[in-house]
């Protein structure tokens, strides 16, 4: 068997790597297709560190040409792909999502039919089958969490990051839009000086020029002694989750991934919305979010304003089991079976298709 992984964005890798490692363990040939960007050196370093074979392409047309040339058994995608009709002449396609958040695009990614889509949990699997009855969906779980659930991910050496191992640790993991970043106090790490703070922004907040204001704030916060700001090489949220007692986020997949580990989360309801998403245009924000958004909101305590944040963090840190039953009920709905074997189930499916 020969399997390729389409890596349009760096942040697809945490979902792909557990599957690739299982395939490599069965002596299956694998390779990654990287798209040229401002982070080429980082991608090459990651490939070197993980002993990955890879090739470079400029865009999806060049990627398609490569796929037609290679004739792999399977090509994995983390999102839709415009040239499936051509690809399917020589290879099968598989989709494995890079997040489990509340955005409606989770479902619309299936508008273009892959050979199979690996899904997180029975609820989402059945809902997708109802929406796209001609497509194949297989419930495997969320492979990104496998190493956390099995205890193979040790997390960070906090002292090595310049932090205090005797302090509790919180992670702030905002998404790029709609984001809470611009609504935080300019010097907020000083308000949490009794915590280590790990800041793991979305890749776009660092990489895309349109979010330069977010990047400036993030770099300002990195100057505080109790803060570690993720470097560009810290593409994976998994070590941050392993190292943290509590997480602060907004409408990000990170919030649900952390809650699935049965750790407390604070959901920031204070968001910076573009004018085109406010007032009369607020329907655009609602359209961007999944119809189950309201139910998913129960997985966390909510900070309506920044001024409420510290008290909520302290309450959740001192009483981490407060929302445990709701977390675990919704975690199963969002992430499926939490047994650390999602990538094993992907492997099993692929091997049975030979």
UniProtKB/TrEMBL annotation:
Task: Tell me the domain of life.
Answer: Bacteria
What are the alphabetically sorted keywords of the record? Transferase
Q: Which InterPro entries match?
A: Glycerophosphate_synth, TagF_C
> What is one GO cellular-component annotation here?
membrane
Question: For this UniProt entry, which segments traverse the membrane?
Answer: none
One of the entry's Gene Ontology molecular-function terms is:
CDP-glycerol glycerophosphotransferase activity
- What's the name of the protein? CDP-glycerol--poly(Glycerophosphate) glycerophosphotransferase
Organism for this UniProt entry:
Thalassotalea litorea
